[in-house]
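Troubleshooting entry. Yesterday's outputs looked truncated, so today I'm pasting the complete records for two proteins to confirm everything comes through intact. If either block looks cut off, that's the bug. Protein one:
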Amino acid sequence: MATDAPHFPCTASWRVLKGAFSCFASVSFMAATVLVTGADGFIGRNLVAFLASRGYGVIAASRTASAPDHPNVVAAPLPDLALPFDWQALLERCDAIVHLAGIAHRFSDDEQYNLVNHRATDALAKAACRQHKHLVFVSSIAAQSGPFSEQELTEEAPPRPANSYGRSKLAAEQAVRASGVRFTILRPVVIYGQGEKGNVSIIHRIAGLPIPLPFGALKAQRSVLSIDNFCSAVVMVLTDPRAQGETFIVSDPTPLTVSDLISRRRAVLGRSPWLVPVPERWVELSFAAFGLGDTWYRVGKPLIARPSKLLALGWKPS
């Protein structure tokens, strides 16, 4: 016998009910306690403080076992991740993991990159799977591309890492996917903010010099990411179940040139940009003459990786 279709009193009432259900689903999905590995680094320190300020309990795990003085944060020691480590005791205390620990801004050989960035992540993912936790693995845009790209990068493009660091991060991503854990993979571009490292830090230090700089003619755009936007992206994927099983590029929506970065930095310092339009080829040759050819590829060549997929999920960067 046929039955009548479900009837709702009015469209407005249904919208209210639907909104309330969506809100409840989001809150119920939120992880109460998050284990952050690599909590003593530039990104980790900022992320721990960001999560704690938003009501999360945080286990700040690091080699130094230090944590900010905040009632929501406890410190936990991590050993050298090049050695075998039993994650079970730490995982029993958390609802989700944000895995930052690894080797990045220093020279290391292939074996160390493999042990720390790949094998340790593999062991963590398998342990998290056994405990039914959600693992947010912070990879890198280096897992997808070399230091520059003439084509705009997307998550769907075949990954082509160009160095040992990038290859170890890509291998770690593959291990996470194969482990069976509930996962989200983030591929951030270079991150800037208080305590920053890497090429943006170098550019900001140069911008602080009280001299004219020969970068006015550089037009190559590069994607960068503020530390606050990175932290908000982490919260987004922790709270939205649609992020599970997905990989996301994370960047500020608008790419910048080196000239833009210097101008913005000098504006903060209350100075004019003072940029001289020296031909790009001359600048490139100057970098090469000082043995900085690799640095040129990271500042003078393009790398655009937009966060379109993350924005489509509802991420609202500042």
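Protein two, checking that the full record survives here as well:
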Amino acid sequence: MERYDVPSEADSFEGATKLFGTLVKDLQGPAAGELGHHDLEELIGTRGREVLRQLFQDHLQLRRRREAEAVRRCRPLVRGPEGLVRPRLEHGHRRLLATVFGTVTVSRCAWRRLDASNVHPVDAALSLPRGRYSHGLARLAVLEATRGSFDAARAAIARRCGNVIGKRQLEREVVHAARDIDAFYHAHVVEPCTADTMLVISVDGKGIVMRPEALREATRQAAAKRAHTFRTRLASGEKSARKRMATLGVVYDAKPAPRRPHDVIAPPGGRPDGGVARPGPKARGKWLCGSVIHDAEQVISRVFDHAEARDPGHRRRWVVLVDGARHQLDVIQAEAAQRGIALKIVIDIVHALEYLWQATWSFHGSGDPAAEDWVATHALALLAGDAVEVADAIEAQADRARLTEDQRRGADRCVNYLHSNAAFMHYDQALAAGWPIASGVIEGACRHLIADRLDVTGSRWGLAGAEAVLKLRAVTANGHLETYWKYHVTAEHQRLYPTPDQAQYDLTA
């Protein structure tokens, strides 16, 4: 015979049933019949969320009763993660859990020992987080905070879930959510490709406005020493020394797509075949990574680790696209030499074109249509593999024109850039082999990962928050957020509940 003071499991969800019945009754009433659909949405959304919250709460109460009954029938031997037995039992221990439906109370038994921390078997059974916020709420915080400001994220969560989390708590949850990303990608298995598929790597950097304490030491010292001309704004040429450089890397696969110079740049008189340009190689299987904490060496090493996971035998053609930054080039070449990888390094043609445009203003006035034809002519020569000849021709033209130092500054910059990087400007070979010659993939990643979120006007970042948002946006862009979240939840459970000894009794009894 069942004890009179223990409700049956059929009555366990009486609270949620009453709330649902009341909602149905109100919707059947005359007042609801006069509501517009938008008011009905508001009513059902708000009251329906409370029904869901009560369902969650009622289920937790059911598990509490099951636990108490299981302990009453057969008192188990409970050990902590360090192996010590917890001989004392106390009922009625409670903790709050903020969920996507609202805040609920978890009641459970505590197994105690004077010289050790309490053990709560139900915590492990429910895989409760260390803090107050559920994994579902933390995932929602990640989704909202990686696409908008923390204030906007908190407002969006409040509209959906009620007032369950504050802004600072949301920031901490986002930082905590990113802690397993490096381990996730270390264990991630990539899809193999055939040997004729190119493996393309590209690296770039972009600054993020940081709080003073988050700047690198050299930048902080430069900011302290710098004397500004004006008190309220920067003068021409002055920099604020408020940014910390983030390094981003991308790895992708691409099939070779041979082209000709006039497929990339239209000649001044138009293309000889009627304007039909052959398409370039298409990026497939893009994988992005980035860091504002670690330096370029560490990010480039991670990029090479991922690339080697795609091609462990180094059987594929490796192509590296860079913008000409000397430090990046040195690090990439050193990393490849250490790993025994044969690279083909290509300077991004778009950066080279920008230098040609700087040079053309040394010879043409602003708005002169001839400037574009001048750039196109030299660009076609550059694409034909004549980087040194183009540099010499520009320098000779500047000498003949007897330009002043200010007038020829753009031309000199272009000449120096072409001479410095001529070894990586064999575009004729790259086009004939079908390699990519533009770093649009990494440029787009810089805009998407950093500019669209971390470079919002007025924002200043702490180091941990910027790193977490950058990494989580990269995981999302890679299409791995759902897979990563399962990995993160599993890793979090293993950290909090390292042994199965905490849940030794059957809560379905």
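Both blocks look complete. Sanity check on protein two: Residues 186-225+239-483 form one domain.
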